[in-house]
Amino acid sequence: MVPGVRGMLRAAMLTGPEIRARVQEGLENGRLWRLTHDRARLLGTTEGGPRCHVCSEQISRGQAFGLTRSSAVVLVHLECYMFWLHASGLLEREPITCAGCRRLIPPHAETMAVRGAVYHGRCRDRMAVRAEPMSPIA
Ligand SMILES: [Zn+2]
Ligand SMILES: [Zn+2]
Prior knowledge:
Elements: H1 5-9, H2 16-29, E1 40-44, E2 64-69, E3 72-77, H3 78-87, E4 111-114, E5 117-120, H4 121-128
Helix pairs in contact: 2-3
The structure holds zinc ion (2 copies).
């Protein structure tokens, strides 16, 4: 294995079903609004690990998407934004996220399904050689 791969596999984000639940919860309690023509913009690097407005998890550097709401900018993960779009009826198919890295899987990407969980092909390959893929990093 290549050194450094472990860090990339560390899952900071929630799983797809967990994100879906947060979006539903947010729409019900009013923390989230129904998206219409709101457009998220990739903000790139962010300092200080801001929290995602949907899932409340930290957003790693370079992954923050900004939604302008009135004059404020709301920061979200791309994955959370996609689930939010879907819940708002603006995205026909529910997004699919990888059970390994938790990142979005593009519609035509190579995937591997293992016991109902969907992985990127390469994530599955990596996890197959590791005994405890989700063990915390000491
Ligand atoms: Zn999020
Ligand atoms: Zn993956």
